[in-house]
Amino acid sequence: MPTLERVPALVATGFLAIPVAQALVALPSALLNRIEAAPIDADLADTAAFSEAYGFPLDGGANCIIVLGKRGDEVRFAACVVLASTKLDVNRVVKKLLDVRKASFAPMDQAVELTGMEYGGITPIGLPASWPVYVDARVLDAPDVVIGAGLRGAKVFLPGAVLAGLPGVTVVEGLATAD
Asked: Measured between alpha carbons, how far is 49 from 31 in angstroms, rounded to an integer?
């Protein structure tokens, strides 16, 4: 089993996507001091594969999903963070939050281009400032959450409650449903 060498996130900026490293530097020290990162095998970046290979509990995995909504000609983007053991409620909850007629997962190439991050490594840290970030309330209860680091070859670790303090975050009850 490969090992995780977790280090303070500020020390790890060399293996984080540029937007993620830039956003971390801008965080207040009270938040930054609670965030760690570790390099991983990029082939094991998907949540289930990561959990199995590194022995990290699956219920500590969180996914950051980029969603787009349309109202007429206007397109609105948002990021949604849910536990890996749950399913994002796009058609009801996200649609209402974005105040759009139609909401769906953003196409992979568009999500990658707009975030400056690799697919499978997208994280709520370092997203475009104009995007809302919705975090399912259940994520905040997790004592040790793993999320993407902007690149498939690394992960970020933080207490779930720290996500609530990140810029642009709104905590939403019922954003996800049990899988």
From this structure: 28
CA distance readout (Å), 178 to 66, 87, 124: 19, 6, 21
pLDDT digits (tens, 9 = 90+) for 128-173: 999 999 999 999 999 999 999 999 999 999 999 999 999 999 999 9
- For 122, the token pair is 């997208």
pLDDT digits (tens, 9 = 90+) for 22-44: 999 999 999 999 999 999 999 99
Contact by Cβ (8 Å): 177, 85: no
Q: What is the largest CA-CA distance in the chain?
A: 50
